[in-house]
Design a protein that fits this description.
By secondary structure, the protein is an alpha+beta fold. The protein is built from 10 helices and 24 strands. The strands form 6 sheets. Strands 8, 9, 10, 11, 12, 13 and 24 form a 7-stranded mixed β-sheet that branches.
Length: 382
C-alpha cells in the first residue's frame, strides 16, 4: 500500500503534499506488471507541482545496494513523468529502513548570476587562466550561474586560428576546463563559445555549452546567425561564414534557476529567435558576445534591453571588452538586464565581472500583472 502525508485529492483539485512514503512492498508491484500510474495518483500530483521550476524532490532511500537500486528506479520513473534529474536529490539513509520518503522542497526564487568580461588573446592557456581567476571571483560573490563571453578561450591573430584548436564534442582542453570549473565550484556554467569540429574541415561550430553543478554538459547551442557584414561609415568588415558553420537548433534548457535560453552575439539582432525561445518557456537568456566597438556603441544596450522588455525575461549579456592582439576592439559593457528592461549591473571595459540577484518570482509577477505575452496575435515560426 502507498501512504500519502498531507495529500488532498478531490476531482481535479490537488493540493500540494509535503511528502509521500512508499513501502518496499508497494514499490515491488510494478515489477509484477502493474504500472505505477495504476497503483497511485502520485503521477498527477507530480505533474501538478512540477510546473513550478522552483520545486524539487528530495528522495530519502534505504542505504545499501537494494535501496540504491530502488531509488534509481524511482528517479528514472520521475524523469519519465517530466521531473528532470537536476530537480531531484537522492539521500541515502539507514540500511534498516524499509521505505522511501519523497519530500517536496521549494528553492528560493532568488539566485546570484555573474557575467564575465574578458579581452581574450591567441593563447588558449593564458585565456583559461584568466577565466579561472574571474570564475573564482564570481563564486566569492555568491554566483550560482556564471556566463563566459563569446570566444573566451581564443581570439586569434587570424580567424583561422580557432580552427586549429577546434575540439571534438566531449573531449579537449577547453571543454575539460569548463567541466572542472563547474564541478569544482558547484556552479552552472555557460561556456561562452567553444570551437568544435564542423562538417567542413576548414571551419568550426561556435558552440555555446552549458555545464551543470556536477560538471556535466547538459546543453549545446551552435550559433545560428553569422556576422557577415560591412560596418556602416567605417572600413571594418567581417565574414564569420569563412570559418564558422552555422547551427540550426533553438535551445532552451531547464535549470534550477528557471528555463534558460542560449544565444550568441549577432543572434541578438533577430527577435524571432527569442520569440521561438519564449514559446519553449524561456525565462532567462544567456548571451555570450563579442560586439565590435563600433556596432556596440550604436546598438548593444538598446538591443539587449529590447530583448528583455519584449520577452519579459532576464538577459545575461557577457561580452569581450578591450583591445585584442589581432587589432580588433570589442565593446564590452557586459550587463545583466531585468524583465522590466532595467540595467541591473554593467561593466564598461576590461576584464572583470558583473553580478546581480535574479528573482524568478518577480519575473512571474511581472508576466502575470502585465500580460502582454498573452496578448500576442501573430506567431513567429523558426
Amino acid at each position: 500500500m502507498v501512504f500519502f502525508t498531507a495529500l488532498l485529492i478531490s476531482a481535479n483539485l490537488i493540493a500540494e503534499p509535503a511528502a509521500w512514503t512508499l513501502s518496499a512492498d508497494s514499490w515491488a508491484r510494478p515489477r509484477d506488471g502493474q504500472s505505477v500510474s495504476q497503483m497511485t495518483p502520485l503521477p498527477e500530483v507530480i505533474k501538478h507541482w512540477s510546473k513550478d521550476t522552483t520545486q524539487r524532490l528530495v528522495i530519502h532511500y534505504p542505504g545499501g545496494e537494494d535501496g540504491q537500486l530502488w531509488a534509481h528506479e524511482l528517479s528514472s520513473w520521475l524523469v519519465a513523468l517530466g521531473v528532470p534529474q537536476n530537480r531531484q536529490e537522492l539521500v541515502a539513509g539507514s540500511q534498516q529502513a524499509d521505505r522511501i520518503e519523497i519530500e517536496l522542497s521549494r528553492e528560493t526564487s532568488v539566485t546570484t548570476v555573474a557575467c564575465i568580461q574578458m579581452a581574450s588573446g591567441p593563447n588558449v592557456g593564458v585565456n583559461l587562466f584568466e577565466a579561472e581567476r574571474l570564475i573564482g571571483m564570481a563564486v566569492e560573490k555568491g554566483a550560482k550561474l556564471v556566463v563566459l563571453p563569446e570566444n573566451f578561450a581564443i581570439m586569434g591573430k587570424d580567424q583561422s586560428d580557432k580552427v586549429v584548436v577546434r575540439e571534438a564534442p566531449g573531449a579537449g582542453q577547453i571543454q575539460d576546463f569548463l567541466a572542472q570549473q563547474a564541478s569544482k565550484h558547484s556552479i552552472w556554467l555557460v561556456g561562452g563559445t567553444v570551437p568544435l569540429v564542423a562538417h567542413d574541415d576548414h571551419k568550426i561550430r561556435a558552440a555555446c555549452l552549458l555545464f551543470d553543478d556536477q560538471g556535466r554538459q547538459v546543453a549545446r547551442y551552435d550559433k545560428i546567425h553569422l556576422f557577415d557584414v560591412s560596418v556602416v561609415d567605417s572600413d571594418e568588415s567581417h565574414t564569420e561564414s569563412d570559418t564558422i558553420e552555422p547551427g540550426d537548433q533553438v535551445v532552451v534548457v531547464e535549470t534550477p534557476f528557471g528555463k534558460l535560453g542560449l544565444a550568441v552575439c549577432y543572434d541578438l539582432r533577430f527577435p524571432e529567435l527569442f520569440r521561438t525561445m519564449l514559446d519553449q518557456g524561456m525565462e532567462l537568456l544567456a548571451l555570450p558576445s563579442a560586439f565590435t566597438a563600433i556596432t556596440g556603441k550604436a546598438h548593444w544596450e538598446p538591443l539587449v534591453r529590447a530583448r528583455a522588455i519584449e520577452n519579459l525575461c532576464y538577459v545575461f549579456a557577457a561580452g569581450q571588452g578591450g583591445y585584442h592582439v589581432n587589432g580588433r576592439a570589442t565593446y564590452g559593457h557586459s550587463m545583466i538586464v531585468g524583465p522590466w528592461g532595467q540595467v541591473m549591473n554593467e561593466l564598461a571595459n576590461g576584464s572583470g565581472l558583473v553580478c546581480a540577484e535574479v528573482d524568478l518570482d518577480r519575473l512571474h509577477n511581472i508576466r502575470r500583472t502585465f500580460p502582454c505575452l498573452d496578448h500576442r496575435n501573430i506567431t513567429c515560426h523558426v
